[in-house]
Hints:
single chain, alpha+beta, two-stranded antiparallel sheet
Amino acid sequence: MWEFERDGDAVRIDPTGPLRTRPGAASDLLIQGALAEMGVVHIYDELLRPHFDLGGLVPILKDWEQPSVAPSSISRGDGTCPRRYALSWTS
């Protein structure tokens, strides 16, 4: 479910189509599908920024924002975080 807010209005979209993944899964596949003009991709801006900068993808719904969510983390079963992951904040 995709949720967007603007000026106090909220919209929920349940996307349909041949390719859907759960949040955080198969980001590269979703980006490649969008680059091939197969549909719209909705993932973190930092993953899409290089494609926006090169003109391969164009942002849509720029006036709309996602509701704030609490940060989450990735950890191993022992509570430690793999070194290759870093926390980044977007506004």
